[in-house]
Amino acid sequence: MTHPCLSCGACCAHFRVAFHWMESDTDAGGIVPPEFTVKLDKHRVAMHGTDQAKPRCLSLVGEVGRAAHCGIYAQRPSPCHDLQPAWENGEASPQCDRARIAHGMEPLTPASFGLL
Taking the complete model, does pTM exceed 0.85, yes or no? Predict the structure, then answer.
C-alpha cells in the first residue's frame, strides 16, 4: 500500500507553516534549510510560499492530489512533523480533512490505512 500522503500534498498547499527561527539556524542546532524560510517576526519564520494568500510550500514537489512529497522531508519543521494524516494512527485529523477538502479531495478514512 502506498502512503496516502504521497498522492496528496494538500497540507503543504493549504496552511501557513510558521515556527521558531531556531529550527532553521544551523548554529543553534536547527535542521530546516534556512533558504526555504522567510522571516515573519522577531521570533518566527515560515516555510517560503506558505506565507501567501494561496499557500504552497516551496519544498513541496509534485502536483497536489496526484503525486506529491516533501523535498526536505528529513529536515521538515516541527509543524509539518506534528501534523498527522487522518487515521494514520487510528485518530481523526481535522487539519488533514480541511486541507484535503479545500483541494477537492475526500477526507481520509480508516480504510485509507487498512484499519477496516
Answer: yes
Q: CA 87, 91, 95, 97 torsion: positive or negative? A: positive
Query: How would residue 60 be classed by pLDDT, with cut points 50, 70 and 90?
Result: very high
Q: Cα 93 vs. chain centroid, distance in angstroms?
A: 13
The CA–CA distances, whole Å, from 16 to 2, 11, 82 equal 26, 9, 14
The yes-or-no verdict on residue 1 having pLDDT over 80 is: no
Structurally, how many domains does the chain consist of? 1
One-letter identity of residue 103: H
Q: How far is CA 29 from the centre of its chain?
A: 21
